[in-house]
Design a protein that fits this description.
single chain; three-stranded antiparallel beta sheet
Length: 134
């Protein structure tokens, strides 16, 4: 792929900000590729910028490979994040179902147990339900 094909592939998942600076004394430059996730898919792990410092010749030789590696790592993180979300949603659904079943069982009075008196009725009958000494 060309440099712009790699940048295009990266930009499909996030808006990219690029900064480039040069140091005349060392003959090196720094290139930062900073992703800004689109929509509500923001996740700090996917916001990590790519920051490279090298000579222009080194960038000519390896920048495309570095972009590809960065893009693949971001894709892998995004896939792992999605898998984790799916597991958490399934666990949440199971917990809600289990809680609903437990609440349903607790709400059914047993045949031999007397129904509890409402507090207003107990108070009127002189039963406070409060025992200071325990």
């Amino acid at each position: 792929m060309t440099i712009f094909e790699e940048l295009f592939a990266l930009a499909t998942d996030a808006t990219l900000a690029l900064t480039i600076s040069a140091d005349l004394q060392t003959g090196r430059m720094t290139v930062n590729v900073v992703p800004k996730p689109k929509g509500d898919t923001a996740n700090p792990a996917l916001d990590k910028a790519l920051s490279l410092t090298a000579t222009p010749a080194e960038f000519d030789e390896g920048f495309i490979a570095a972009l590809k590696s960065y893009r693949e790592a971001r894709r892998s993180l995004a896939e792992q994040l999605e898998a984790t979300r799916e597991v958490l949603e399934a666990a949440k659904g199971a917990a809600v179902k289990q809680a609903a079943e437990a609440a349903g069982k607790a709400a059914k009075p047993t045949a031999n147990a007397p129904a509890p008196k409402p507090k207003a009725v107990a108070a009127a009958a002189g039963e406070s339900g409060f025992d200071l000494f325990g």
